[in-house]
Amino acid sequence: MKSIRQMKSWSRVALLGAVAATALLAVPAMEHADAQSQNDTDTYRQLSLFGDVFERVRSEYVEEVSDQELIEAAINGMLTSLDPHSSFLNSKSFRDMRVQTKGEFGGLGIEVSMENGLVKVVSPIDDTPAAKAGLQPGDLITHLDGEPVMGLTLGQAVEKMRGPVDSDLTISIRRQDAEPFDVTLTRAVIKIRSVRSRMIDDVGYIRITTFNEQTTTGLQNAIEKIKAEKGDKLTGYVIDLRNNPGGLLDEAISVSDTFLEQGEIVSTRGRDPENASRVHAKPGDLTDGKPLVVLINGGSASASEIVAGALQDHRRAILLGTQSFGKGSVQTIIPLSGQVAMRLTTARYYTPSGRSIQQTGIAPDINVPLARIEKLDNSQARREADLRGALNNPSGNGVAKPEAADGEDTAQPPEQADYQLARAIDLLRGIDLYRQRIVN
Predict the structure, then answer these.
(1) What DSSP line would sit under 52-82, residue for residue?
(2) Active site residues
(3) What is the pLDDT of residues 199-217, one digit of tens each?
(4) 133: how many CB neighbours lie within 10 A of its CB?
């Protein structure tokens, strides 16, 4: 009996405990439900307020405004209030953005500007319909398919020159010292060049202006061209990311991977911890380990900072220049119905060492601000050879070459006029000289 009473007693305790536990679980659940209900009520109240304001503006604003304009402006205001990089893309902005990121479009292949209301050819791009038709820098385009250009903005004129591949466009040209003439061009795929390169003596110089779908291919082609031209005599590379505002995350990753053998390139973390990601380099350094100097400045942002941060953390490159912009977030383009989209900040990114560069930017390894190079006249300085009775050099070659006299051409090559680039080239040559002396 005693055991039965104990069992009953334990049963009552267990029952009371269960009731208490149920009550403890039920109270927060009820509070959560109440809070959710309150939030829903507040949301509907705010939406009702938005509807009231919309109706009052629509009916009472001093000028008539279309519903589409009001709604797009309201959506854009909501997104831009979140951060400086979230925004609404109407159909035109969405179309322009896709052209920029894809890096190619149907067009004629002309770099243009406006002059006195007419479109002026700055330069035809090689291997495009414009170049093949013989258009020349300085040509003025007066009509497009018979319609006058006068009165159009540059953007409107460019939009008319773009169009479906294989479609024709007749343009009227006014050229100096020639009668105006018409030429019919067939639009082709025009690729936006985001990578340019050249040799500066024994240094390969590669300039990346943006990160679009053509960037990695352009970079690889530039490296192969430099290697083929200079071979074993190549000292190293200067990768110029100054004033590069960024672009596609995937392209920043593949550009970094071009110079790395292994290791993490970048990690991203969003609102949901389960969506965090890490990207690692694949084996293979296309530059064969040659020294790299990366130029950055306050205009190097986003994708540029991903590349610079990865190469700096892995000690693959020396960063030279000034502090970068400091944009450490990732935006996702989310297409919406009606050929519009929104650009929404969905994650922060971190360099391989785990640092966020948001607001702080990347500090260069060697700080070199912009400066003007001025050559000082040192031609009047006295040397040993100027002294009366100075001993002769037994080798017979001790007379130094005099400095350039007044009136001689003292113009500097472009790389010498760019102080940061000149310092980068000097640094690469210094590294190469040091290596040679260690080997010898």
Answers:
(1) HHHHHHHHHSSS---HHHHHHHHHHHHHHTT
(2) 302, 313, 327
(3) 999 999 999 999 999 999 9
(4) 17
